[in-house]
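Format notes (please read before filing issues)

Several people have asked whether sequences and structure tokens are stored in separate files. They are not. Every record keeps both together, in the order shown below: the sequence lines, then the token lines. Line labels are part of the format and must not be stripped during preprocessing.
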Amino acid sequence: MSWIMLIAAGVLEVVWAFTIKLSHGFTRPLYAVITLVGMIASFALLSFAMRSLPLGTAYTIWTGIGAVGSFLAGLYFLGEPATPLRIMAAVLIVAGLVLMKLAS
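Then the structure lines:
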């Protein structure tokens, strides 16, 4: 159950990172509210997952899901560039996540 909560927390991190961009500095109320609710829910799920997962593992997986998910959201929804170095960086993050999971 802890891993499910951790993955959900990571997905919510992507949601709030994406909507904070769409909020244009919190000037668009709907996106600002979604950002804040997403942040609170993401932190809450992370804290529940940390009850049974090691800090280093939980935090690394959470931030990794957020980083790679935000990168992909930027590519697909915001038209951000998919340069070879950016893609390589995302692949390395995913490799680190897999290794962290295997080490747990």
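For reference, the curators noted about this record: Residues 2-103 form one domain. The two ends are 15 Å apart (CA to CA).
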